[in-house]
Design brief:
Length: 318
């Protein structure tokens, strides 16, 4: 049976709000909470971007059942893999094994801030692969040294490790990334309802149970207001990942998203209060084979959305 999650969008809410939302999600029966990990928001209409790892620590202490997952963290450029290995191990301990480390190759929007430049996509994928290898090695315990082409770890040890290694899931969008995930990770994270991603991962030995996805939605009793919110807050994604990964700042995203209309957003994001429309969007991912599907609400009325989810949407889902 699929597991359903609540995506905590750090770009839209402050740290205390995010912790409270996670508590509410657990109370509402959600199975897991995903969280974005950025230093910048996407658009000027976003007003937040707290440090995701501090938020995760608070959530781990304030919840007891909710699975947690980063959707996703880039473990290179802005971070060093050794730092992510330590952070993830700590959340694994605090959550008593409820944490999955979702990793991706990142976006220039966040990674450029440390002044190391932005490598081409093939180099970023090589960096991600080495980062995963270094993290895995550090989780073996003891003092470890890793020397790759892009990643170096020198005589480092993670002292606080969970009883079982944290699961790793890699963001995927095509054949090469699926191959990398099947080789190095325990699962995959995706934003498209493509069965080929799940099937390709499974064909290469991946576990279908560790497949994760997210669906953006805009709930409001007034459909016109829901469409406005979707356009205001979600239009940054309309250009697709190849564009999203390359733009360096909020002003660039504002310019790239300027041609996007409300009608275009309403075609890709469920808007309004028709539970069948929302359930159909999630069904697409379930039908594609994803076992963990998170819903990302764009609006501010989280209480209203949770009532809508519990009373009207969840009964329509498997």
């Amino acid at each position: 049976m699929p597991a359903y999650g609540f995506k905590l969008m750090t770009e839209l809410h402050g740290p205390a709000q995010l912790v409270r939302q996670a508590e509410q999600a657990e109370q509402a029966g959600f199975d897991f909470a995903g969280i974005s990990d950025h230093i910048h928001p996407w658009l000027e209409s976003h007003h937040h971007s707290p440090f995701a790892w501090s938020v995760l620590g608070a959530i781990a202490e304030r919840t007891s059942r909710l699975e947690l997952v980063t959707m996703v963290t880039c473990p290179t450029v802005r971070y060093h893999p050794a730092v992510i290995a330590q952070a993830a191990a700590t959340i694994g301990v605090l959550s008593h094994g409820r944490f999955t480390l979702g990793l991706g190759s990142g976006e220039q929007l966040n990674e450029h801030v440390v002044g190391k430049g932005w490598p081409p996509v093939d180099v970023r994928h090589d960096m991600l692969a080495e980062a995963v290898q270094a993290i895995r090695q550090l989780w073996q315990g003891g003092y470890q040294t890793f020397r790759g082409q892009h990643v170096t770890v020198e005589d480092a040890r993670i002292f606080d490790l969970p009883n079982h290694p944290v699961r790793i899931a890699l963001a995927v969008s095509g054949r090469k990334s699926v191959e990398l995930a099947a080789e190095l990770a325990d699962g995959i994270v995706a934003t498209e309802a493509e069965a080929a991603l799940v099937d390709g991962f499974a064909r290469q030995g991946g576990d279908r149970r560790n497949t994760w996805a997210e669906v953006a939605v805009s709930w409001h009793p007034d459909e016109a207001e829901a469409r406005r919110i979707a356009h205001e807050r979600l239009r940054f994604s309309a250009q697709g990942w190849k564009v999203m990964a390359e733009l360096p700042n909020v002003a660039n995203f504002e310019a790239a998203a300027e041609p996007v209309t409300e009608d275009q957003m309403a075609e890709s994001v469920p808007c309004g209060s028709d539970p069948k429309r929302f359930a159909a969007a999630l069904h697409d991912y379930v039908d594609a084979g994803f076992e963990h599907v998170a819903v990302l609400p764009a609006g501010d009325d989280i209480d209203g959305f949770l009532r809508f989810w519990t009373d009207e949407v969840r009964p329509l889902l498997p």
